[in-house]
Design brief:
Structural class: mainly beta
Radius of gyration: 22 Å
Helix content: 10-25%
Shape: globular
Order of helices and strands: HEEEEEEEEEEEEEEEEEEEEEEEEEEEH
Number of helices: 2
Length: 380
């Protein structure tokens, strides 16, 4: 039976290989090219690193990089390269560790800045107005912890504030100056009279997703906070109202995609980790339905792409002689460009993956081929 199964897989792979070889250029050795985004500078201890967290449909990337003093938020594009986002006193404070966490198509950037031992605030930046404070919910009097997680093309920002009694999610809308901050609500208090709501994603319809007391939620302006009937966390929602994240099934975390009509699909894993555990998490989805995230495997946790009901380790989709080891991916835009963090020459660097110009359906066939080969290797 095992021999028959292996033979079947070999036939499938051979068929797909033929389809790919007849439609993909002979020099297409990988599906993505990779760009090293570099660093802003080296700190006093000689450390240099960068991490990428967001990308918009103009190909602008944001994240965090080492400098001569602390981590600083950056914005990168092909024309200007890596540029620091730093024009406020808070960014230059003694506790000035900062990171840019997201960017929309209007080049508005959100991020976090540590301005004191018990102070983290959220900022909004653009080239015209510089850095502005994101108004959030009132926090505890002795500490200020605010975090901005996502921004849509309307300029609406979602994030969370630590308050007395837990954590609350907020929506910040600068276009509504009389009432710019909205509390997204809670499902109820736990046995300790605490409640936690954290929103991670917002689309251009102002639909918000996240986790509230361990439950996946969807929020909109009409119905408010809604329980989607899943334990876990939603990390993103696109303009087709497709929600992605992680849910618990048999005490194992598994990545999912939920359609607007409520249909739920689990996205699978590459394989089990070293201790036999399985885990996958979906972090982002674009308007084409491509999903990126992480999965356990025999090689450890790997950055993955889910597309056309297949999963692939992105390390297998870049040139084999690139010298890169991709660790995490965090965002994907509508052109399929992916950003994340990896290692090259012993250094931690932000990277950009750009799909090579393989015409459809060749790209789909090639992607399925890579996935099929991985399955075959695990079965042999």
């Amino acid at each position: 039976m095992l021999y028959a199964f292996k033979t079947t897989l070999t036939i499938i792979a051979s068929t797909i290989t033929f389809a790919v070889l007849t439609s993909v250029p002979s020099n297409a050795a990988s599906l993505y090219s990779i760009t090293n985004l570099g660093v802003l500078g080296t700190d006093a201890d000689g450390r240099d690193n960068s991490q990428a967290y967001g990308i918009n449909n103009n190909g602008q990337v944001v994240g965090s990089s080492s400098t001569t003093r602390f981590q600083r938020p950056f914005i990168w594009d092909r024309q200007n390269g890596l540029k620091i986002i730093a024009d406020s006193q808070s960014i230059e404070s003694p506790f000035g560790e900062s990171v840019a966490t997201g960017i929309n198509d209007k080049s508005q950037v959100i991020g976090l800045s540590v301005t004191g031992r018990q102070t983290i605030y959220s900022f909004l930046w653009d080239a015209k107005n510089g850095i502005q404070r994101v108004e959030a919910l009132p926090t505890q009097p002795t500490l200020l912890y605010e975090r901005a997680y996502d921004i849509n093309n309307k300029g609406e920002v979602v994030g969370s504030s630590d308050i007395i009694g837990g954590t609350r999610g907020f929506l910040y809308d600068s276009a509504n100056p009389q009432n710019p901050v909205m509390d997204l609500g809670i499902f109820g208090l736990n046995e300790y009279n605490y409640a936690f709501t954290i929103p991670y994603g917002i689309n251009d319809l102002s639909e918000v997703v996240g986790s509230s007391d361990g439950k996946v939620f969807l929020w909109d302006r009409t119905q408010g906070l809604q329980d989607l009937g899943l334990s876990g966390t939603a990390y993103d929602i696109n303009n087709s109202s497709q929600v992605v994240g992680v849910t618990l099934i048999n005490n194992q975390g598994i990545a999912f995609i939920r359609e607007k009509n409520g249909n739920l699909q689990t996205l699978g894993v590459l394989g089990s980790g070293g201790n036999g555990e399985t885990l996958s998490i979906a972090y982002d989805i674009n308007e084409k339905g491509q999903v990126i995230g992480t999965s356990t495997s025999a090689l450890g946790n790997r950055p993955v792409l889910w597309e056309n009901n297949a999963i692939a380790d992105l390390n297998n989709l870049i040139p084999s002689n690139s010298g890169w080891n991709l660790d995490t991916v965090t965002a994907i835009n509508d052109q399929g460009l992916i950003v994340g963090t990896g290692r090259i020459d012993g250094k931690t660097r932000a990277f950009l993956l750009t799909p090579k110009s393989v015409p459809e359906p060749a790209m789909t066939s090639a992607f399925i081929l890579f996935a099929a080969i991985l399955v075959i290797k695990r079965c042999l």
